[in-house]
Amino acid sequence: MGGAGAPGADPRLPLHARVKDDLLRRVKANEWAGDAALPPESALAKEYEISVGTVRRVLTELAAEGYLERQQGRGTYIRRASFQHSLFRFFRMHGREGQIPDSRILDRDTVPAEAQVAEALGVAEGTDVLHLLRLRLWEETPFLVEDIWVPLPLFDPLAEVDLTEVGPLLYPAYEQLAGVIIGSATEQLSIEQASPAVAALLDCSLIDPLVRIDRTARTHADQVVEYRRSYGLAKSFQYQVEIN
Fold first, then answer.
1. Distance of CA 169 to the CA centre of its chain
2. Lowest mean pLDDT, pick from 7-21, 74-88, 136-150
3. Which secondary structure element, helix H or strand E, spans residue 158, and what is its range?
4. Angle 52-64/15-28 helices, nearest 10 degrees?
5. Whether residue 140 is found in the same domain as residue 25
6. Helix (H, G, I), strand (E, B) or coil at 218
């Protein structure tokens, strides 16, 4: 690349900034998807015709900004957001640390996007989207009901796959089936009463208060690819945050 960074890059920018912009473009395009690591620092230095020190600086900055994950002895990878620990932050569950709750997809259907779903996904109201109804269980006890919407045709493979092949975590399935890597998400909490359908799944009464968690998930390219509403019993809710 002659040390020029991305084609069309502003030549007035410092060299390391041009290389950083180009690597970020490639990260957002999922060039290193799956288990693929980025090339070694020496290979990137040769590709961009820059020093290894400059490559290391760029990778360190992209890792600090949340785009990459550097694993000692293994290499550098596109960072995958992990949200299973948020369940432990919000709901009291007792078990082995790192244990993943069971999941059951109870329903899957193509539906027209209602107004709030359409706004969250950035599509026109009434556009066909894929809806999943999922139940999360801890030691066989239901504790969370999730309504999940994802855009079509991006998630056509998820609409067609045998659901027995989808594991307890959806985001790895998103990547494997649709090539979608979740980079970040925004969550908003509110309190409401249980609907008859949710009450039946959580085995609670209609007057039991629920915590509702609305999540909007995005790729590293800031494309919204999931809107999710999760419902859990308020009596099991806890909020924990570490402030330094």
1. 10
2. 74-88
3. helix 156-160
4. 50
5. no
6. strand
